Amino acid sequence: MATHAELPNSSIHPFGAMQDNTSQMTERDPLIVPPPTIWARFNSKYRFGKQILVASGAMAIFVVMFIVLGTLGVFKNKRYRNEIGISSIGKTKYPGHSSGSWESNTKEGEGDGTYYDPGVGLTACGTTFTAEDYIVAMNAYDFGESANPNESPVCGACIIVTGPNGSQKAQVQDICPASGCGRGSVDMTPAVFNKIGDINAGRIPVSWKQC
Predict the structure, then answer these.
(1) Are 169 and 158 in contact (CB under 8 A)?
(2) Cα separation, 52 vs 97, whole angstroms
(3) CA–CA separation, 196 vs 176, rounded Å?
(4) How far from 45 is each of 53, 58, 197, CA to CA, in Å?
(5) In this structure, are residues 155 and 125 in contact, taking their beta carbons and an 8 Å threshold?
């Protein structure tokens, strides 16, 4: 009786059994997984990686902004310097001198007149004021040395400052450093400066004397 040869199983691949992987993949699984970016690697490597990246980005923006503003000459423009509250203190321009004494109420002088905003912190006399107050910072030479500037007899002294456009009474409540104010110079709030000169000038010749 003739026997029939067994036919090969058609479900078996000639190179081996085929594995059905269709159940292991979903429609959302990407066919190609891109390599992690440098930012992703940095974030996974450091504990505060994301915060560091955000802070670095913000700092880079500010650096670029200041570079652009500097290139445009904004910081040298006296009008813009005044609007953003940057002091006009710089190198002394006008000859200055002073005479008399605070104790005898004969103190007077002349020199450069500049402006600043005292609202950034306490004054040398330990007081707080704003740009709208009528106070001045006296140059270090005429303010004099004191173990504690808060207790200096110069604090609160009344002076009359005269500039190209008029005169204005003000109180001495601060010290202008020697690097920006020479002998006889006075650093004023914008309120005082506007009364005696054009604030767009930034630096004007002034004279002053005790009230």
Answers:
(1) yes
(2) 53
(3) 19
(4) 12, 21, 59
(5) yes
Selection from 156, 103, 161 nearest residue 126 by Cα: 156
Residue in the block written with tokens 């106070």: 135
- The interaxial angle of helices 49-71 and 38-45, nearest 10 deg, is 130
Q: How many CA atoms lie within 13 A of 7 on its CB side?
A: 3
| Position 202, amino acid | G
DSSP symbol at 154: T
Question: Residue 184: pLDDT above 90?
Answer: yes
- Alpha-carbon distance 157 to 121, whole Å? 20
pLDDT, tens only, 43-65: 677 777 677 777 888 888 988 88
| More reliable by pLDDT, 44 or 162 | 162
Query: Phi, psi at residue 159, to the nearest 5°?
Result: -130, 160
Per-residue CA distances from 101 to 96, 108, 109, 117, 209 (Å): 16, 8, 11, 27, 10
Among residues 82, 158, 175, the alpha carbon closest in space to that of 122 is found at 175
Helix H or strand E encompassing 57? helix 49-71
pTM for the predicted model, two decimal places:
0.58
Strand partners, 206: 111
Chain centroid to CA 101: how far?
Answer: 38
Q: Which two tokens stand for residue 75?
A: 């910081």
Q: For residues 9 and 21, give the distance between their C-alpha atoms in angstroms, rounded to a whole number.
A: 21
**DSSP class per residue in 155-180:** TT-EEEEEETTEEEEEEEEEEE-TTT
